[in-house]
Task: structure prediction
Amino acid sequence: MGRHRGKYAEEPSGRRKRRRGRGGAIAALAAAMVIVVGLAVAGVYMFGQADGCGGSDIELDIAVSPELGPALTDVASDFNAEEHAVDGSCVRADVRQVDSANVAYGITGSGATMGDTDSDVWIPDSSVWTRLVQSQSGDAVITETGTSVARTPLVLAELAEYSEADDDPTTWMDVVPTAAPGEESGRTVRVVDPARSSSGLGTLYLLHGALEEASPDADTFNAHMTAALQSLHQGASADEDAAFLALSGGDASAPPVMVMSEQAVWRYNSAHGDNPARPGYLDDGTYFLDYPYIVRSEESDITRAAEVFRSAVRSDEALQRLLEEGFRGPEGEADTSVLTGEAGFVAEQPDELPAPSEGSITDLTRSWNQMKMDSRVLTIVDISGSMLAEVPGTGLTRMQVAGAASAEGLQMFSETSELGLWEFSTNVNGDVHHQEIVPIRELQAIDEAGNEQRNVIASALQALTPLPQGDTALYETYLAAYQEMSRTYRPDRTNVILMLTDGDNDNPGGMELEELMEQIEELASPSRPIPIITIAFGPDVQNLEPLQQIAAATGGAAYMTEDPTEIGDIFLQAFSLRIATEEEEEN
Result:
């Protein structure tokens, strides 16, 4: 696979233009100038204060990613003992361990935070967080110094006893399944929640690039990316502690393959010596966590103090301390007595792929969060007489194939998603052309008989029975479903109508398309979207255009295939609308 990543590519050494307001750009330039001048001034005081320093201390508050804490606390302790001075005042470095996402969201307000996010210096685990801040909060004081305190590549971690399997992944395309729901998925690969973890977000970025290069068209890419996101969602760990527990098999599930940093694997092994993991290095390169040194103050004494401490973290002594904690140096150097070959680590650093751009970070985070939003789906299945026809080569009726494919599609939804089931034809329930089979409830809900909603729907799909003389009152059913979903709309969920039918509208004397479109237009609201997704299958579907008009009016989609066994793949294409629609709006 190549090294390019389309619109999401940015060369590792490339410089970025920060998105700032005019005032923010001027402030950043001024702060940078102060840092440069401060280096010279600080040097004078460092060499001219051999007898120590006096006056009130300059307290330098330094927020670092937790795994840096042990090494940089030691560096700060030595630094403070040496009594470095700025303007005659001692600089006292105070290192605090703070989650990188916590700081980023504290600045932007775009995510959950536990507070305590202010600092003079910030060393997150990755530049993705500073880019996120720059793209969402352009006036924030974020002065890049060009210093990478340490580096560590993303690898695949697996318990050593399982790591010799012949099917070990070799490229990022091998990492997660991209098949339709219900097909063989192979190994379980997990990440830490990309909304809170740069390793998780980096994984999404690497997968996106791999799929973008391998996919022949946009529909295929969206379907495969949707499958990848859904697969990762199913086993995403909330944080690193949960990831370590899952990797050890301590969460009662089969030990997975976990994407994490090389240094995280070393830390895991330090705490699990009796059950170690081995890192796996992929052939097509990887993304690195780069631990940038960021100054967040514009005060002259603080920026100069920050520059003095930056010199300390770049020293040979600091580098050695970081290497002892399983990191690599800025040039890829490693301590092979720490990252040992016996444990599976390699001395030469892996090939580095381009880092995510600001736009990719925003887009991928949005796609992940869109998938996290629970769905609320009303599924409607055609039970007209034509559903009794046999699907060539299967020995099954259209009804049986559609029911099985729909049951497989259930696996796409989280336990807290809400699903319900209708059947329709003509005069199914007296003069009414549809009938509710299962009310809309969470898939984990338990009914009065003690049955879980997911199992209730699966059983109901298998039990659907076509009406031999039934026709296809498609338009009346669309309207009834749209009215019901409008009446019960849930703003905290993705509200969708999913229609499966094997024929065109066929209800003599019934509703016409023009009337349906008028009714939907009256009900529709941009702030309460209810997309209608139709999957039409079988040779009896002669005209897809009316279904496309309905889809366009509601923000949905219409798909047609003569082979009902393709419904599973179409499910993926349909629900990849979440990704495609969001990206199209941005562009």
Notes: The longest strand covers residues 418-429. Residues 22-48 form the longest helix (27 residues). Residues 1-51, 578-587 have pLDDT under 50 and may be disordered. The radius of gyration is 29 Å.
